[in-house]
């Protein structure tokens, strides 16, 4: 309905919704109907007056939407902008600010390179050695690279003197040209450009309201008095700006979804802002009457009433009032996976003249079924326009549900995966993670030791640009012994990595042109080959054993995999293929799958387990906690529900009688898959025909536990899942004793978790919890001391009385803990105060704030796993690692917290494990000793 209201209009329109999650849902759905014309204008995350800037991706999307609106009638496809109350009412860039920056650049035009670089800096761009992300620029000789937020790829501008010789889009991964342009528009890279007068006026208002002991605040005040803008996220909105309404043309259509809820969201925003202002005023950071960073509720009401034309959607509309109608939508028929039946039924309805839209993630497969039923159609990425009578449009995509409606021209219907398959196959396209180059440059500074895979240990001397033929290229400069230098093309940066060692002693540089590095590698290989002890004999025996070769995929296996409610990532597809290849070989599998939290390791285990069960073998899944066992049981039952597979859980949630019955079932072979904690390893637990062992979160188990499970059946296939393997296991993998698969692809909309390391502060904790509640989310607060956890929870309740707080830890009675976790997962509580029981595999996408008390007392892998419990959806997640005020951190604790703070990139689990290997050592490869906790 929203799409039809916008269709054919020559001006941009605004859809105003209550909350950010509503805007995200609308944007995804409208993309099917409107394509690129549906634009989501995201709200800046965080609390009012926060100093922290919005993530670059959010700023990029906001500026891109404003730039699109600035086109006005020149836009051939006027957009429909979807915005929440927070996004639409917040102050942002003014129309005039969008002209900041160099503006329109044309081939053959003239501009001084120095002036161009200066205008970029003034427009908010950061000058650096390389361009990787929007808002960055780099200058080398007569070439300037810049990545405007409105461009899909960075631009390379080459000048000859003051004349622009060429403008090219290039791939930041390969640095190669993708497209040549005649012209390009380079706009601002930030939202705030207040004039000097506004800044001086703001400084005068703030003067006298400051606490003289607050050094940071005093510095900010001094900057404002100089006409500079410190902490733009806080002071930018206060120094003047424009709301989204001011960027809309006169006569723009405003569509309000649930006006009562919209105004309620505005009132809540006003209340939170007032509370924040009072708190900061008491601390001397803001004046008592600080201006709001957004429109208030009353001003929003005036904006809505002024809009013409305007449409309002309400679930309570009756159609009886003047200007009101209630559309007679009805539910679409459900086919529950019977696609051939669905194709025949839809063909019959097309023949009678109905107009039908089918939106599915299995469009190609369904097109073939429709062709068999006599309906010729092609797969589209979106709807090009209105449907003719007696036609069917097949669209590749995802919508939440279908409907039917009778019209004067016959029936109009929408069918989605919910009707066709019985579930929504959720879109999980991949975001392009930071390149190896970006990771390398983040990890390594000039002067650091590095290792080239073919040439050995060197010092990194920076990036240089050299002339090669008729073009310039970037190279890594590596310095070796005897002042020898090696220039490595930027495209080959994957051959170079940071040097890791278990001591601070500087390594000896390799001498180029000799066999020194080859001899070093040979000695290492020889040393590894000489290791001979119990563990190594076990692994060697496994290599020689002839295990069971599982059969190739069956029809049931294909059915299970096509019912996966997400699109597999390329990494997931590759890892699943590697696991299946190992299982179908005669040699017993021993593979570790290393993937960050939320990257799809559990689905790999589901498919491997089902493959084993179909061959008549049992599967044991070892997990570290009862809570994770409960969650895995839910996942496995849901995925394998259509098939005759018996799944049970052995943990302390079971009564003694239930446990005895389950053990009997394992011994007799009636239980196909058992998910269990350490109880699986107790004497008396025997299997009739064990074929596969899956060890989840293996860093939580001791060596003895894992090896005991493998010794149950020496020829059993073993699959290990981990985000941060403990150093010993990582060491064995890197030494080639075990096979390793890595999963590095994150969902497209997922953002790295923002991480803070600070002393415990009541105001900070209250702000963090309130900020999460404001956006409709939940929070974990970790206090890893069972004896004092209830008193800690009471303190938190007094600190944040608005929050519903529950407590969960591993020593609670089994029924109580299960009830607490189920209530929290169902959204019946806002804050879970808990021990590290949540660190393994807990998946509640609505939890996006983590606060860890006494973080300095936890291990590196624990901290990384805990942080992985948040940020599992598209919301910006935040983690606060807190230590006691005035406490002194030892060196190891400082290193652990620094590693977590720096490892913010998605997929950084392997980096954390490597750093753990460096800090703690590898453990004893030959025995049961592991390093650290």
Describe the model.
With about 950 residues, this protein is an alpha/beta fold. It has six domains: about 1-95 and about 195-315, Rossmann fold (3-Layer(aba) Sandwich); about 100-185, Penicillin-binding protein 1b domain (Penicillin-binding protein 1b fold, 2-Layer Sandwich); about 340-420, Rossmann fold (3-Layer(aba) Sandwich), CATH 3.40.50; about 435-530, Thrombin, subunit H (Beta Barrel); about 535-745, 3-Layer(aba) Sandwich (Rossmann fold), CATH 3.40.50.300; about 755-905, 3-Layer(aba) Sandwich (Rossmann fold). The protein is built from 29 helices and 36 strands. Helix 18 (about 570-585) runs parallel beside helix 19 and helix 28 runs antiparallel to helix 29.
């Amino acid at each position: 309905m929203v799409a039809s209201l916008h269709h054919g209009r020559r001006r941009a329109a605004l859809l105003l919704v209550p909350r950010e999650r509503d805007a995200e849902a609308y944007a995804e759905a409208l993309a099917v109907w409107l394509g690129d014309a549906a634009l989501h204008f995201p709200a800046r995350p965080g609390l009012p007056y926060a100093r922290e800037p919005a993530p670059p991706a959010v700023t990029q999307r906001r500026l891109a939407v404003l730039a699109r609106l600035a086109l006005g009638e020149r836009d051939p496809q006027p957009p429909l902008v979807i915005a929440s109350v927070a996004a639409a009412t917040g102050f942002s860039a003014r129309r005039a600010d969008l002209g900041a920056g160099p503006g329109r650049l044309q081939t053959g035009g003239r501009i001084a390179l120095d002036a161009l670089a200066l205008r970029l800096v003034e427009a908010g761009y950061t000058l650096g050695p390389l361009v990787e992300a929007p808002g960055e620029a780099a200058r080398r000789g007569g070439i300037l690279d810049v990545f405007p937020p409105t461009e899909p790829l960075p631009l390379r501008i080459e000048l000859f003197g003051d004349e622009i010789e060429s403008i090219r889009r290039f791939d930041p991964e390969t640095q190669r040209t993708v497209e040549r342009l005649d012209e390009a528009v380079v706009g601002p890279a930030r939202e705030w450009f207040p004039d000097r007068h506004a800044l001086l006026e703001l400084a005068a208002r703030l003067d006298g309201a400051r606490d003289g002991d607050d050094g940071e605040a005093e510095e900010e005040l001094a900057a404002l008095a100089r006409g500079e803008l410190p902490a733009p996220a806080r002071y930018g909105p206060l120094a003047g700006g424009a709301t989204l309404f001011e960027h809309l043309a006169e006569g723009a259509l405003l569509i309000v979804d649930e006006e009562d809820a919209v105004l309620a969201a505005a009132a809540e925003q006003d209340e939170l802002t007032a509370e924040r202002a009072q708190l900061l005023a008491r601390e001397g950071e803001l004046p008592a009457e600080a201006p709001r960073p957004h429109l208030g509720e009353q001003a929003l009401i005036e904006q809505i009433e002024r809009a013409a034309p305007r449409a309002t959607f309400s679930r309570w509309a009756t159609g009886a009032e003047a200007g009101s109608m209630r559309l007679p939508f009805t539910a679409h028929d459900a086919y529950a996976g019977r696609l051939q039946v669905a194709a025949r039924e839809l063909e019959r309805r097309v023949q009678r003249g109905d107009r039908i839209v089918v939106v599915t993630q299995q469009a190609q497969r369904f097109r073939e079924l429709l062709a068999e039923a006599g309906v010729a159609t092609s797969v589209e990425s979106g709807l090009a326009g209105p449907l003719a009578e007696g036609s069917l449009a097949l669209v590749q995509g995802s919508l939440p549900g279908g409907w039917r409606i009778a019209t004067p021209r016959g029936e109009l219907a929408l069918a989605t995966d919910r009707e066709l398959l019985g579930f929504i196959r959720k879109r999980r396209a991949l975001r392009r993670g930071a390149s190896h180059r970006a990771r390398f440059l983040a990890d390594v500074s000039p002067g650091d030791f590095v290792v080239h895979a073919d040439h050995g240990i060197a010092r990194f001397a920076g990036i240089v640009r050299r002339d090669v033929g008729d073009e310039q290229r970037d190279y890594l400069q590596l310095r070796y012994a005897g002042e020898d230098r090696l220039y490595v093309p930027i495209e080959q940066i994957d051959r170079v990595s940071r040097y890791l060692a278990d001591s601070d002693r500087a390594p000896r540089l390799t001498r180029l042109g000799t066999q020194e590095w080859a001899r070093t590698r040979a000695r290492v290989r020889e040393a590894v080959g000489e290791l001979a002890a119990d563990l190594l004999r076990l692994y060697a025996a496994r290599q020689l054993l002839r295990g069971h070769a599982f059969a190739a995929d069956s029809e049931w296996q294909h059915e299970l995999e096509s019912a996966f409610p997400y699109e597999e990532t390329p990494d997931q597809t590759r890892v699943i293929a590697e696991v299946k290849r190992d299982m179908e070989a005669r040699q017993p599998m021993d593979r570790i799958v290393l993937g960050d939290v939320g990257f799809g390791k559990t689905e790999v285990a589901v498919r491997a387990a089902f493959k084993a069960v179909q061959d008549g073998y049992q599967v044991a899944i070892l997990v570290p906690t009862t809570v994770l066992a409960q969650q895995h049981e839910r996942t496995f039952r849901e995925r394998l529900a259509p098939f005759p597979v018996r799944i049970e859980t052995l943990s302390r949630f079971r009564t003694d009688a239930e446990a005895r019955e389950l053990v009997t079932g394992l011994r007799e072979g009636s239980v196909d898959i058992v998910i269990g904690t350490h109880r699986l390893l107790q004497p008396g637990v025997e299997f009739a025909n064990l074929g596969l062992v899956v060890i989840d979160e293996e860093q939580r188990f001791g060596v003895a536990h894992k090896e005991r499970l493998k010794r149950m059946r020496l020829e059993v296939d073993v699959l290990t899942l981990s985000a941060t393997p403990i150093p010993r296991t990582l060491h064995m993998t890197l030494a080639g004793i075990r096979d390793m698969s890595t999963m590095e692809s994150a969902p497209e909309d997922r953002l790295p978790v923002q991480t803070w390391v600070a002393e415990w502060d009541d105001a900070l904790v209250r702000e963090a919890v309130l900020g999460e509640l404001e956006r409709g989310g939940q929070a974990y607060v970790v206090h890893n001391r069972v004896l004092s956890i209830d008193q800690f929870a009471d303190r938190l309740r007094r600190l944040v009385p608005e929050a519903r707080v529950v407590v969960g830890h591993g020593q609670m009675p089994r029924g109580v803990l299960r009830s607490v976790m189920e209530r929290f997962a169902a959204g019946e509580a806002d804050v879970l105060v808990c021990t590290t029981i949540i660190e393994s595999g807990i998946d509640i996408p609505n939890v996006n704030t983590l606060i860890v008390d006494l973080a300095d007392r936890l291990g590196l892998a624990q901290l990384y796993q805990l942080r992985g419990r948040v940020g599992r959806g598209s919301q910006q997640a935040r983690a606060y690692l807190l230590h006691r005020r005035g406490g002194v951190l030892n060196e190891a604790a400082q290193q652990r917290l620094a590693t977590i703070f720096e490892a913010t990139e998605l997929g950084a689990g392997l980096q954390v494990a490597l750093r753990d290997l460096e800090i703690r050592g590898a453990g004893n490869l030959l025995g049961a000793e592991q390093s650290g906790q």
